[in-house]
Records
---
Amino acid sequence: MPDMTGLIHHAVMAPSGHNTQPWRFRVKENRVLIFPDFLRRLPVVDPLDRELYISLGCALENLVIAAGHEGYRALVGYSFEDGAISVNLEPVDGKANNDWLFNAISIKQSTRRRYDGRSIPEADMERLALLPLEKGVSAVFVTDSEKVEGIIELVKEGNSIQMNDRDFMQELISWIRFNEAEANRYRTALAQRPWEIPHPLV
Ligand SMILES: Cc1cc2nc3c(=O)[nH]c(=O)nc-3n(C[C@H](O)[C@H](O)[C@H](O)COP(=O)(O)O)c2cc1C
């Protein structure tokens, strides 16, 4: 029997929009169901729940990586009825050789610090370029500095539009914890420095 609590512990370390952590888990024997938690929707910035489902995909990916690390193959299914993702875990001979991914789960962190200007190492770029992509999806790497500047201007413009939108700002503020007590109480959302949001399962 897989260590379900351990697997879910790794799943919930996934990134999510505004750190809403819009997931719920149900365990049935060797099966984990991941449900969308619509109480954690972001109706202004994510009216179609697109990013909510991307966040669920991130949690699923972590769970699959952790299962492989424990010696289980994950068979993933999706129900269009209730939006649940099902993960059936089957024992396999030997653990997946994915230490580097598994170890990354607990150390990865989104950062909003000032960019230090260092280039992404060539080897990392090559690894990214080799990632398998779904049919119809392509990855474009923009390295030309003039083009990069053009994109920065577009991002800045997009940011200004959002920052000048009252509804967007209200929603964002409602997902920011302004003191340590609040951060401890909710254990989700974005922490205003210097406190960290404690991990939900710690
Ligand atoms: C679908 C999705 C959209 C996100 N959008 C933004 C964004 O627009 N701006 C941003 O600074 N972070 C964004 N994030 C990062 C989250 O805010 C971050 O994952 C969350 O605060 C949890 O922090 P952690 O990744 O360090 O665990 C996004 C993450 C996901 C999964």
---
Amino acid sequence: MSEIITIANQKGGVGKTTTAVNLAASLALENRKVLIIDADPQANATTSLGYSRNDYEYNIYHVMIGTKKLSEIILKTGVDNLYLAPSNIGLVGVEKEFYNSKAKQRELVLKEKLDEIKNDFDFVIIDSPPALGPMTINALSAANSVIIPIQCEFFALEGLAQLLNTIRLIRKTINPKLSIKGFLPTMYSKQNNLSKQVFADLSHHFRNKLFKDEGNSSFIVIPRNVKLAESPSFGKPVVLYDSKSSGSMAYQSLAKVILGR
Ligand SMILES: Nc1ncnc2c1ncn2[C@@H]1O[C@H](COP(=O)(O)OP(=O)(O)OP(=O)(O)O)[C@@H](O)[C@H]1O
Ligand SMILES: [Mg+2]
């Protein structure tokens, strides 16, 4: 059965998509079969994996509204073992329809769709939009765990209480098994005192929820690395673009920690 991990933070631009794509690719490189679900209407994960809007007809929107099965929209990627359920700006429609509908259990639509393919993948990684709206709630309701990227910049922890409350509420009501897999400091700069401060704050509050690299007994932080920012424009995860870059190595270490090694 798949382990389902949602990457979430309602704050924009903190490294959710970068984490989803590169963690998924790194797990695939470790010979795990991985599906990345782009649950964001911005479709950045889809683009990062080299697809543009005219390359595919159906996307996660059609799955959410029930016109297609999840298995029918899945695309191959340039990485062996890595598959993509693409998104499209049309997914905004789902958010509207959800707000207007009075349907019960509308938080559980994605989970239901995932049940269908849960024996086909080792991991499902869900990239969520920068909001605590219906798609994020669906993504959290479907997941075993959540990874929360925290950008090592000013205001990093702002809004975190709201996210943690939402997770608590989902755990209490629809998904008791949802756990916080960890907080992932992103865009860390060694030279920057603010980065150090954010990391210190995080380890003060959530020390046991940082990812620990047992190999060298340090915590995993994703460095600010230009290769991570460039690789989406080539439609490739960083492991294919520059596997020895600091950003690539960090995501490969994260994958190893998640695999328990
Ligand atoms: N470690 C990093 N080093 C350098 N640039 C990065 C790093 N992580 C992310 N970026 C860049 O920062 C920007 C925001 O990252 P990303 O798209 O992953 O954030 P996001 O949380 O998914 O954003 P959104 O909330 O809009 O979905 C992108 O241009 C990305 O390439
Ligand atoms: Mg994103």
---
Amino acid sequence: MKPANQCNVFIIGSGPAALFAAIRLEELGVEGIVIADRNSYPAGGLLNDGKLNFDHRVGIDLNELQIDIGTARKLMGDIKRILEGFPYLRQVTFTENNETVDVIQRIALENGVEFIAPEQWHWGTDNGKAAVDYLRGYLKKTTFLMRTEVISIEEAKGKGFILVLRESGRETRIASGTVLAAPGRSGAYWFRDTARKLGIDNTFGPIDVGIRLELNRIIYDPITESVYDPKFIFRTARHGDRVRTFCTNPGGRVRFEAYESFKLVNGDALHGRKTENTNFAIINTVALTEPLSDTTEFGRMIARQFDLLGGGTPIVQRVGDFREGRRSSRSSFNSRIRHFDFCRATCKAVPGDITLGMPARIIDNLWESLKKMDKIVPGILHPSTLMYAPEIKFFDTNFPTTPGLETNREGIFVAGDGTGKSRGIVGAGISGIIAAEGIARKFFPERHR
Ligand SMILES: Cc1cc2nc3c(=O)[nH]c(=O)nc-3n(C[C@H](O)[C@H](O)[C@H](O)COP(=O)(O)OP(=O)(O)OC[C@H]3O[C@@H](n4cnc5c(N)ncnc54)[C@H](O)[C@@H]3O)c2cc1C
């Protein structure tokens, strides 16, 4: 479709928050929708793994979205309805009559740990493009501006906004009555700066800092065969902090996530080809008050420290070395004598010492939690298990909004991970739907049913 220089709803980003918002807007009969993304393919994080958690306790903050459990369930139902025809999506965790769940829940409780087994579906990174094509199939009237970066948002004379765009080095402008910002984590700081210039209120939220564990999948299979992505939640005895497991990938790979001045670790799994390993994140929630409330800067300092130590690459340490208080090194990395060959790394991080880059309190919390987890899933802390760092989730800017996700600047709405409204694909999609309904209710009441 031909780009227009005027539209009704301009959506920044093309991840799940944006696509589900556009689908809902079209369903409501709203026309003149434009989606812009600086990438060449409209997907955002949909090309990653595609593990869908349908549980209001995972990736959905009811308070932040100002919804109750019933509404969250209804919105999860909407996401499922939209995705139900996608052939590569398969259910991987069944919550009803799952005996393993009851057993793990009991053992976890005995160890003072909370265990959640959400209903989960998965399509795999290798089917990510097909998932995006499938979702785009719903969008008959939306205009996509790809390889188009939104540089700034300016107030238009009278009503609405002017979006300043850059495409192939060329600057263009487009006017829009409303804007939905769904820039994801990669665009979060650009949008925060832009929002401040427009007088949009925002505050620092907590971040999650931790590591990614990779182990021979034999150890974790008895659990992940029943619960694909098990969620263990710990409250640490020493510091009283919250630690949780996150994003488990049975038969998956550890991957790097590149940012402008550092790399973080993450993980995914393919649908068609499995590795011998399983990986998952274990992360510590960090909130700051005074004198420093800027969790972003704190997280970036940690990331930069690892970047420095690893010469631009994340660091990996064997549990066997960690226990003995020594760094991992290339020469002994796959040592048979030390049983390190039981787990072959799927990712080329630099062998080193993760305790050099991570604050002591976080290391304490992670290790205390892992020791508890080793009682629930014996073998997790096998000497060969790999600890990759840093894994940091920057969901750290919160925007106070109306129930329709409109900010204090009339006409500017927010959704998705980059604006603190979600943590994951389903949550991002739900926040997109809520924002779409908020836009339709306020600006197109004749169409909103
Ligand atoms: C390796 C990896 C694996 C993951 N696995 C899972 C998983 O299995 N399950 C799950 O639920 N979540 C997973 N996630 C997280 C998931 O990808 C995100 O939660 C989700 O994509 C957030 O959606 P969003 O729409 O808010 O933002 P995004 O999907 O990040 O999309 C935002 C888009 O906005 C664009 N953008 C930003 N700023 C601008 C600008 N100024 N101009 C133009 N475009 C801009 C970006 O290019 C991006 O495409 C994973 C993430 C990674 C990195």
---
Amino acid sequence: MNAFRSLLLIAVLALVHPPNSVSIAAPKTRDYKHGTARPVPSKRAKSSHAPYESKACMVCHNKKKRGRGVGRPKKNMTKICFTCHSELKRVLGKYKHMHKPVKAGCISCHNPHNSAYKMLLMAPKPRLCTNCHVSIKTSINLKVKHDAVTHGASCSNCHDPHGSNIEKLLLALPYDQCIGCHNTNNLKDEKGRLLMNYKTLLGKSKVKHSPVEGKDCSSCHEVHGSKHFRLLTEPYPERFYAKYSKEEYALCFKCHDEDLVKIKTSRTATKFRDGARNLHYVHVKEPDRGRTCRACHAVHASEQKSLVRAAVPYGSSGWKLKLHYIRTKDGGSCERTCHGIKPYSRNKR
Ligand code: HEC
Ligand code: HEC
Ligand code: HEC
Ligand code: HEC
Ligand code: HEC
Ligand code: HEC
Ligand code: HEC
Ligand code: HEC
Ligand code: HEC
């Protein structure tokens, strides 16, 4: 093929498969205008603005030409807000990232008079935010929900609604936020199962999975909500035993080569082999219902190399099965757990 034709082909392919089409979709935000920010009846008000309470209507309104009541609101309303909220103005001026609607005007989120919600908000969170952020609305309605989003300050648990020096308007770096909440022994998921204490776990473990070492929890977890178990970004089997398919393990194979498990005999696909016999294949793929990675690996961190775990939680009671893994120079062995002593050696012919 001549150079011109191959260039043409690349151009056509780029049209059919734009280079970024498989990566994260751009956040879907829609223009949204809450209703007119007129005063709400005082018995419904949960918050009220000092200048409104003190009837200083003319701070923000022009005089009405004729009749009773107030005239139209003045122009440059944000500037008027800043005459009293100078501290916020100062802080906003220092932020590297300003939230776009703040530039457009404070009344896209605040009622300048009073409100049926806290902080003069035009709507309660998360609705205030998801009215514009429609893709986040989709995420938080998925099957697996995150308490971080649905409880407390909701979106403001992690984002500053006005601006921030950290990308995505975050209050702290993502990893510090995760560890900031996942640092207790009594956090439970919605089914009442205890979650691990990540501060302790990551503090004491000698070996950390590379993305965890890189403090990138988001490489495997969605924050807002997910259709996959444990808020995972891709499918991963929920149970101890599962019939093998590449799709079921999409999470691991996003970064690892499937050959690790897929090829029956190989001297290169994995170090977990006896001679050329691939023991990942033996355990994960060969049986009708293979063992999932968690049977041997801790996915966040572990005491031993290769993230091999000391014990495996088995069944719903949380009973732990000891693994007794011993590493050798060219292999290793597992003892007295699932089977008798079974050594493996990569050098075996
Ligand atoms: C902090 C500034 C501020 C103060 C103080 C204020 N307003 Fe307003 N008011 C506004 C703004 C801005 C709007 C326009 C809201 C919009 O367009 O959504 C408005 C709109 C209104 C409206 C609705 C107008 C319409 O077109 O439907 C009424 C009624 C109103 N104000 C009455 C009052 C009264 C009465 C007071 C004093 C007791 C008062 N406001 C004090 C800023 C203020
Ligand atoms: C005349 C001065 C003045 C102007 C103008 C003003 N505010 Fe305020 N605002 C106040 C005062 C005083 C408070 C109460 C501060 C406190 O409690 O610390 C307040 C509180 C608030 C609060 C917090 C409410 C709460 O329940 O704690 C918000 C939000 C707010 N203002 C938004 C605005 C917006 C938006 C504008 C412009 C449309 C504006 N303010 C203009 C004086 C003003
Ligand atoms: C995108 C929505 C949004 C916009 C736009 C917005 N705010 Fe807010 N603001 C909030 C929320 C939400 C809170 C409640 C605090 C929280 O959740 O952290 C808040 C809290 C406040 C408070 C009280 C607490 C504090 O941080 O001091 C003030 C005052 C305030 N806003 C003023 C303003 C002013 C002035 C503007 C315009 C320059 C503005 N806001 C624009 C969402 C918004
Ligand atoms: C009036 C519409 C509107 C509301 C309400 C709103 N946002 Fe936004 N938000 C936007 C727009 C527009 C952008 C800029 C999107 C872009 O640049 O593509 C944005 C950007 C963001 C970003 C940064 C995205 C990035 O890629 O950097 C975050 C995080 C965010 N908003 C969170 C919130 C939260 C939390 C709330 C509620 C407190 C909220 N938003 C309310 C319109 C809104
Ligand atoms: C537990 C912390 C946490 C909570 C709660 C949270 N977020 Fe986020 N949000 C993040 C992190 C971390 C990111 C950046 C990583 C990512 O894109 O997933 C982010 C990214 C975003 C973005 C940018 C999306 C993109 O694809 O670039 C928007 C918009 C956003 N959040 C809005 C919201 C809204 C709206 C809420 C409330 C419904 C909310 N967030 C609640 C942590 C949180
Ligand atoms: C504001 C506190 C808070 C923050 C910040 C937070 N979490 Fe959570 N998270 C919780 C709570 C509470 C639960 C237990 C209830 C539930 O399952 O939602 C939880 C549950 C989870 C679960 C299990 C969900 C399930 O139902 O199976 C995962 C996974 C998770 N969080 C990951 C993260 C990651 C990753 C981050 C950082 C990006 C993070 N969390 C930040 C409070 C938080
Ligand atoms: C390489 C992918 C990966 C990374 C990176 C990762 N996780 Fe996980 N996480 C998982 C998988 C897979 C599970 C389900 C484990 C299982 O059931 O065997 C899980 C489960 C969880 C759970 C619920 C189970 C429990 O007992 O706590 C929480 C909470 C959690 N992760 C938080 C985090 C935090 C915080 C980080 C960042 C420090 C992080 N994860 C980084 C893959 C990952
Ligand atoms: C975001 C990318 C990413 C994801 C997703 C991921 N890993 Fe990894 N993993 C790595 C990197 C990078 C390394 C270190 C380089 C290497 O050994 O290939 C690694 C190493 C490992 C190791 C060897 C650790 C050592 O010390 O030699 C194991 C075991 C492992 N991963 C298991 C898993 C399992 C199981 C899953 C799915 C639940 C998974 N990984 C998902 C990136 C990832
Ligand atoms: C029966 C136990 C067992 C199961 C199940 C298992 N592994 Fe392993 N894996 C090991 C052992 C043992 C090693 C260390 C081999 C060595 O270095 O001698 C290892 C090593 C690895 C490595 C390091 C690179 C390599 O191949 O040597 C990765 C990556 C890995 N496993 C990923 C996975 C993934 C992904 C799954 C699930 C699809 C999985 N493992 C299931 C026992 C297991």
